[in-house]
Amino acid sequence: MQDGVMQAWLESSHLAGGNMAYVEELFELYLDDPTAVGDEWRKFFDQLPREGAGVDTKHSAVREQFRTLAKNKLKQAGTVTAGAPDQKQVKVLQLINAYRFRGHQHANLDPLDLWKQEPVADLSLEHHDLSKDDFDKEFNVGSLAVGQETMKLGEIFEVLNNIYCGPIGAEYMHIVSTEEKRWIQQRLEGVRGRPEFKSEQQQKILKELIAADGLEKYLGSKFPGAKRFSLEGGDSLIPMLKALISRAGEQGGKEVVIGMAHRGRLNVLVNVLGKKPQDLFDEFAGKHSNNKGSGDVKYHSGFSSDFATPGGDVHLALAFNPSHLEIVNPVVMGSVRARMDRLGDKTGAKVLPITIHGDSAIAGQGIVQETFNMSQTRAYQVGGSIRIVVNNQVGFTTSKREDTRSTQYCTDIAKMVQAPIFHVNADDPEAVVFVTQLALDFRNTFKRDVMIDLVCYRRHGHNEADEPSATQPLMYTKVKKHPVARAIYAERLSKAGVLESGDDDQLVSDYRDALDKGEIVVDEWREMKSHSSDWTPYIGQEWDVEYDAKISKQQLEKIGVAMSTVPKEHKLHSRVQKVYEERMKMANGEKAADWGFAETLAYATLVDEGVHIRLTGQDSGRGTFFHRHAVLHNQKDAATYMPLNNIRDGQGQIEIYDSVLSEAAVVAFEYGYATAEPKSLVMWEAQFGDFVNGAQVVIDQFLSSGEQKWGRLCGLTLLLPHGYEGQGPEHSSARLERFLQLSADHNWSVCVPTTPAQVFHMIRRQQLRPVRRPLIVMTPKSLLRHPLAVSELDEMTTGTFQNAIGEIDSLAPKKVKRVVICSGKVYYDLLQERRKREQEDVAIIRIEQLYPFPAEEVAEIMKDYQHVKDFVWCQEEPQNQGAWYSSQHNFRAAIPKGAELTYAGREASAAPAVGYLSEHNKQQQKLVDDALTIK
């Protein structure tokens, strides 16, 4: 604000003379929270002078400036014309602000009343120089959104306790945005802590509590001692979820994806998603269909259904998940992003992610932080999520806060993304439903994550076979005496005259009768309609299914030129310019294709056919090894251009994102995306292959076994740089052996391509073949520019990926005395050394797909070597790693009867590779010599 404007304010009297102390206190209040003062004051303080663009003036300087101006005004006036205001007015505003900041610490959140927080001095009258003697005095309430400008202090104090210290504890003052804070204040304070529900809404909530409690009691009596991870104590989760879904549909939502761990899962399946109780009972009884693969325990199962809402039917999908609790959350986000893309939903208005957490898990698992960190990025944003913590205040047997976390609340992790956090007492279902509606409205308004902490308890042990009193004696003394939420709420409704005597018992009996019938018990359940994600063409397909991937040379040349053309005004870096000049030569057939050209050409041909491609990784735009350059950065203004999205009008689109620095959450996200969208080619590239270690849980529990456990198809491709280049133990191996150890039931393919043409065909095959299983690729580093690793365009027209490649030199098969079998980069080391030696008695065979092992193709190659008795498997990896241990049974089955198979490679090692280049070179030379030297 300019001095003249400031002076005008002064002359309006409220900054003059004796009012100065009042203004200074208001200003301090404003610095704590801009929403704590009235609109007029906030506008004034917002306009205080700045030192520079985007830089706030120091608070002390601002204070001094209007203090000086006030003194000048005083000198001019000669006398103080305005009396000093009541300083208690400022104290009242500070009291209001204190409740907004810290009221949650005195909130009535724990149904068991065991959760004792330290007293907060800021919430006492005395702290603000106020007392009950002031209760009858009238004060301005500032920005307190209660519909009145003034109230007596006693009323203010009462309403503040109702709003902020009742069954809802709101944490939102950590949010930077004033608009978001004011929005929350309007919603919370507007109902004065007592949201009103119509009698029909209350009866609906009661029925849902009866269902939650009734199912658990039914299962407990019908299958005593069986693990079910009961919801008892957190029963309000059922009305919470149903209210959330109903409101989402009312606001235009079309799909909801839910991820949760074990606790309450069976209850959610039956009482929210509409799974038939009889089907659940059959699972408890051990009945199952023979075509369900290896299967999984019932509290890991997913489900899909449609749910009727005031805005139309909403499709529900509960994600399958393993026991590694929080890992399902990024999977859910990936599934949501795929559905958003399919529906053309850029903001998340049509698809809602809901994740349900345990209190110990959300605080303890790092994947939560990774997922939060992704939430506002281009590649992974989904328009915000609703995150619910079923906080039963004990993790397995750990209940002491100092043992479960280092923060006050288990939800504090959400503050990293400025998500509002609403703690709510699960024994007050109306407060739960109110908070749920508020949370969804905030998410839909601001497209940000929201956290609801459903503070409850666990009526049994971690599972029903546990005895919780052994480790939590005080808690479970209370639990045994504590009435269930249904009974508490029924009594409340009876006192309010909403419920007639006996109504509660009748509703309980009706629900039990419905369970006895075994039919669907969810009134909102609707038979699922067909959705745009059609998996039918991919179900039941095997690897040998026929498909057509041939493409003419003329078309390749045309597409190659298009993908190598860059607008003149888009100035490239000199090194990138050279890459594109070389690519244009390759497209015109003037030069053999290198790896980067062939890979990019594969993407270009697919988008030309209308395919959508999604590629993420920490350096995916450029390529870690400077080979891809699919996203071109203008050296003048940093604008980006993607030739792959400019092949022709009406083409498919490719999305390439440099990802956040995460493996676990990112791979889980891409898995979720690929399980929700069969028509897209979804790929994740590791910066170095060993980085995939960080995503091992996703590999083990989703990618390798999702189809066998849950019947979930997934076409995710992992590109993992792999090869021994002397870069030490951490950047040599993508841990090929781990993928081969997990290979069974034709669960995925593991490929080690060695030529540009091979990578071209492999990428196209993954999309065009009507099979949707993961592809694991050991991609090269040095081969990206190896003089022998080149291909002609003619090699790319066949449409065929060769699972195995025989000898390429013109050796006379009858002269061959030894056959070396290998995969990957070591092939070129062997080939060059053999040519250098002019050796003609050793043939080299490449296995380009290690799993499923190409027995027929290898048998065809071996026809020329039936006389050979000496076969060698050669690998760069140590003997206990790589393909040797996991695949040697395949190699032995492939060689002629009576022949011997030996090993040539590095000795067994705890580390993947040595750290010294000289030692690496010595080892590499030795393994090549061992493979080629006939003894």
Automatic annotation (TrEMBL):
Protein name: 2-oxoglutarate dehydrogenase E1 component
Cofactor(s) required, per the database record: thiamine diphosphate
GO biological process, one term: glycolytic process
One Gene Ontology MF term: thiamine pyrophosphate binding
Superkingdom field: Bacteria
Short name of any one Pfam family annotated for the protein: 2-oxogl_dehyd_N
Domain (Transketolase-like pyrimidine-binding) ranges: 593-786
Source organism (scientific name): Pseudidiomarina donghaiensis
Its biological purpose: E1 component of the 2-oxoglutarate dehydrogenase (OGDH) complex which catalyzes the decarboxylation of 2-oxoglutarate, the first step in the conversion of 2-oxoglutarate to succinyl-CoA and CO(2).
Entry's family note: Belongs to the alpha-ketoglutarate dehydrogenase family.
Oligomeric and partner information: Homodimer. Part of the 2-oxoglutarate dehydrogenase (OGDH) complex composed of E1 (2-oxoglutarate dehydrogenase), E2 (dihydrolipoamide succinyltransferase) and E3 (dihydrolipoamide dehydrogenase); the complex contains multiple copies of the three enzymatic components (E1, E2 and E3).
Coiled-coil intervals, chain numbering: none
